[in-house]
Predict the 3D structure of the following.
Amino acid sequence: MRPKIPQSVLVVIHTPALEVLLIERTDAPGFWQSVTGSRDAEDEPFEVTAVREVWEETGLDARAPGHVLTDWALENVYEIYPQWRHRYAPGVTHNNEHVFGLCIPAAVPVTLSPREHRAQLWSPWPEAMDRCFSPSNAEAISWLPRLGRCAVTC
């Protein structure tokens, strides 16, 4: 496997009622998060990465009618957890994460990639924020009420 590119997306999937989808990592039970994933190529647009990762991790089509993918124009830089550094080139310790929101009309069961995630839940945004293991993910969820409850009506 080639090393992961330390540029990724975080996609907060939510409803107009501000319910947030969280998924639990298979390789780290108890670690709940939003959809995340790295670019496949340095020149891959972040939106393309977001659409792909949402599909791979949840089976949701971010471009389906009634779904609204929004670039929140937020970027996090964080230290990669030591247990996952082996996935990157030697010496890479930090990742740049570009944040998106995906509004879907209602909370629905999703189709998880069993290789990556083992459970799912929909929670009101404050509870979702508290459940996230990643501080940058929790912070992104905290922006949800200020970013317009679905910038465009779902």
Notes: Strands lie at 7-14, 19-25, 32-33, 35-38, 68-79, 94-103, 117-124. The chain has three helices and seven strands.
